[in-house]
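User: quick one, fold this
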Amino acid sequence: MMFLGITQIYMTRVCLSIAIVAMVSSNGTAANNNSSTKICPYPAGWNDTLGEAQQGEFDWDQTTQGLILSSFFYGYVGTNFVGGRAAEYLGGRLVFGLGVVLSSLLTVVSPLCAYVSKELFIANRVLQGLAQGVTFPTIHMMMATWVPPRDRARIGTVVFSGVMIGTVVAMSGGGWLSNSEFLGGWPSVFYIFGGLGVLWGVPWFLLVHDRPEHHPRISQAERSYIMRHQSTVKREEKIDIPWLDILKSVPFWTLMVAALGYNYGFYTLLTELPTYLSNIQHLDMASSGFMSALPYLVMMVATILWGQLMHLLLSTDKVSVLVVRKLSTAVCMYVPMAALIAMCFVDCDATLVLAVLCVAVGASGTNYSGVSISEQDIAPNLAGTLKGITNTVGAATGIVAPVVTGAITQGNQTLTAWRIVFLISAVLYFVVTSVYMAFGTDKVQPWNFPRKEKDSTRH
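Assistant:
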C-alpha cells in the first residue's frame, strides 16, 4: 500500500510536467535564436502537423511556466517537517492517507482552476504541495517502525519504486491523453490520475495499521523478528527533538548537503525533461511523453535490481550496511554527473540523447539503497522528523530548479542554454557526493534515544 501510495502521489505531482506542453501555445515556448548551430533542426512535417498540434490554450512564457512548475514545491517545503513530526504522534496511517487523498482531490479540480485564472491554478498547485509534503517523512517513519536496517535496502527499493512507476505512468499516459480528444485532451490527465488517488484511500484506511504490535493479521514470527531489533527500529514511545544535538551532528549535516545536491539534479530532470524533449529535440506530444517516461522505467528496473543485490550482499555478510549506503550513493550521483556532462556533447542525436538520459535517471534509483534512507539508520526514533527536515531542503530545490531553468531558457531555447542547465546539476552532484563519501555513517546516534537512557549509558 505504501508503494501504491507513492505511485499515486508521483502521478499527480508529475502529470503537469507533461500536460503543460499541451496546455501552452507555441508562442510561449519559441526560441529567439534561429542559428542552426544552436538549435536542433525540425523533423520533416513539423510545421504542418506537429507544430499545429502543440498550439495550446494558455499563452504562458518560459518564465511563467517555470513559476507554475515550481509552485507545487512552495507548498511542499512547508509541511515536510510538520508531517514527519505529526506522523510520529498521530501515526502514519492517518497522516500519509490524508496527504495522498487530499492532493488527489485537488488534482481533479486543477483544470477548472487553470481555466478560471493562472493565479488560482498556481494556488491549487501550492495546496497540492502542502498536502503531499507530509507523505515522504511519514513513509520513512513507517519504514523505521516496520523494517530492520538489513532489510531496508530491499524493502525500501520496492516501496520507493513507486516514484518511478508513477512518473512513467504520468509521462507516458499523460502524453497520450494530452494528445487525444478524451475528456478534452490535457484535462483528462488531471481527472484520471487524481481520481485514482481518491480510490486508493479506501483500501489504505481499511488495511493499514501504524505498528506491528497493533496489526491484527501479522504473524507471530514477523512480530518477533521486528521486536528483536528494538535498538535500530522506531519505538512506540515519543522522543523529544534534541535540537542542539542534531545541529551539532556531522552525520545529520552530511545528509542535509546530500539532499540538496541530489534533489536539485533529480527535480531538474523530473520537471524539465518533457519541455527539453519537445522544444529542443522537437518530439511530438505522444512521443515526448513516452520518451520522457523511458528513463524512469529504466530507473525502476535499476532500483529494484540494485536493492535486491545489496540485500543479497548484506544477507551473506559480504559487505556492511555502511558500504551499501556509500556505494549506492556514489552510483546514484557520480554516474548522473558524468551523464549530464555527456549531454553537452550529444547535440541533436535524439537516440543518443535518450540513451544518456536513461543512464542519468536510471542510476539515480540506487539512491533508495543509499543516502535516501540514511535518516532511518542514524536515528530511527526520529526518522520522520529528520526526513522532514532534509526533505524540506530537497523540496526547496524543486522551487529553485524550474525557476533557474526557466530564467536560462526564457526566449533562448538553444542547445547552449540547456548545456548550462545540465552542468549546474553535474557540479552539485560532484560536490555533495564527495561530502557524503567522506562523512556519511550508518551508526545510530546517541541523541536518537530518550535523554534518560543517554544519561544512564554514560555512567
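User: anything notable?
Assistant: The mean pLDDT is 82.
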